[in-house]
Amino acid sequence: MNTSYLIIVLKKAHKIEKNREVFMKHVQSNYNIAWFKLAECVSRGEKERALGVYRLLSHSIGDAAFVLQLEGDLLLAFDDKEQAIEKYRTAIQTYQQDNRWLEAAGVYEHIISIEPHKYEHHINILYPYDQLKIQKKIHAHIERAMDLLSKECNDLLLQQGLAQIQALNDAYYQYAYAYLKNS
């Protein structure tokens, strides 16, 4: 092999690498600016502009579930609770498909902080906590779901809630049943 040719190739590779570094610094700088622009739009209450910046920014994030979660956060920032919760649910499904149980549980906890009175959320969060084997959280959410269902005074709804818990784990059903019996 011709050594002068090798030297030329190595010099070109070095130049390409230097250009790549400059390009990446530029991209990183624009990426940071986009996050600040997004925050600025939110603080000014510019929903459409914020969603536009978000859409551009979302292409540079390699995590589909996080992108959905971020969209939910944006919608919630603009008081669009229903759409935000829908995005959060889709993010949870994606996290669960990727076996990212802690993230799924975290988003469920966020939904519960928004709508703490909905028993469904307390039942739905049982699955990720079951995968994580966090019994204390499982029991706390079963108890909260049973308290909420008991307040409804609707036997059919209570039976449906218990059936959902039983479908996940018979031991959780036994715990829920015993909790109701002792309440």
How would you characterize the overall build of this protein?
With 183 residues, the chain is an all-alpha fold. Helix content is 86%, strand content 0%. The protein has ten helices and no strands. It has helices spanning 3-44, 47-58, 64-77, 81-97, 101-114, 119-124, 126-132, 135-152, 155-168, 170-182. Helix 3 packs antiparallel against helix 4, helix 8 runs antiparallel to helix 9 and helix 8 crosses helix 10 (170-182). The radius of gyration is 24 Å and the shape is elongated. The termini are far apart. The model is unreliable at 1-14 (pLDDT under 50).
List the total number of helices: 10
Instruction: Output the radius of gyration.
Output: 24 Å
Round the mean pLDDT to the nearest integer and report it.
Answer: 85
Which structural class fits the helix and strand makeup?
Answer: mainly alpha
Please count the beta strands (DSSP E, at least 2 residues each).
Answer: 0
* Helix and strand run: HHHHHHHHHH
